[in-house]
Amino acid sequence: MSRKYISTLKSGETVEEVFLVLKKEVRETREKKPYLNLQLADKSGFIEARKWDAARQLCDSFHKDEFIKIKGVVETFNNTLQIRINELCPVAEMQVTMGEFIPSTEKDIPGMMNELKQVIKTIQDTYLSRLLNALFSDESFCKIFSTVPAAMQNHHAFLGGLLEHTLSVTKLAISFSNHYPEIKRDLLITGVILHDIGKTRELSCERSFQYTDEGQLTGHLASGIVIIYEKALKIENFPPDLLNILFHLVLSHHGEYEWGSPVKPGIPEAIALHHLDNLDAKIQAATRAIVEHKDTNSLWTDYVKMFERRLYKK
Fold this sequence. Notes:
- With about 325 residues, the chain is an alpha+beta fold.
- The chain has helices at about 55-60, 110-120, 125-135, 140-145, 160-180, 185-195, 200, 215, 220-230, 240-250, 270-290, and strands spanning about 15-30, 35-40, 45-50, 65-75, 80-90, 205, 210.
- Helix 2 packs parallel to helix 5 (about 160-180), helix 5 (about 160-180) crosses helix 11 (about 270-290) and helix 9 runs antiparallel to helix 10.
- It comes from Candidatus Jettenia caeni.
- Keywords: Hydrolase.
């Protein structure tokens, strides 16, 4: 029997499936009776769920980032689908296939990685080429780079998201550098490939996406600088000025102080990197917001925090 994914659920239908618990709150009704307020997920998306009249023993029987099997009914509340749970029970991790619960890129990961490596072969600057090859000839690094998401939720928040986003911005950078010949192509493309490299240390994705200790303490900009420095240190006579420019590309790519950049873009390649990165992230986020919006009666999405507005779907 095929699985019923969250993205296919419709109001009024019954559902009996296993889900990953993204969020769990034990609340009380006005009558002081406990109930469960949950956010459940599979690889197609997430949905809010409620279990009324939940005994304490049931509330304590599972935790966030664990699996439960539910029986319930899909309902519409404030034009949004949610599940009213009638029955639930914990499910052991060994009984589930993890690929059913964590969203993943729909694109071919080995194919994307190969395409990125082909671009790296076109880099003519000796030091930039050696730096990129030092990173992407490391199989363990490539495995992490091609697995982690690009973000927790705003854009490319799925397995393979970092690779998909990096390759997409790289393609934009190639077109951009062809259009503006005064842009240093090798520098821009290297900056693009390295700009989010710290996310290989910032994010983990064993079940739901989480920040690592390093990610919470320093963030991906600082981690990216450390990774670049560690590799450049092993390359004989790597030019200090070039290393500082690479640091600048990474540190400035958010573009504004209020967006997390410790410095603003100060060279044309950094300005280009910021805007190309921002463009790719926002187009992917806007497309996802429209596709995943569940209210088919509305031509507008709900309020999207990234854009501070609703988006028109028609």
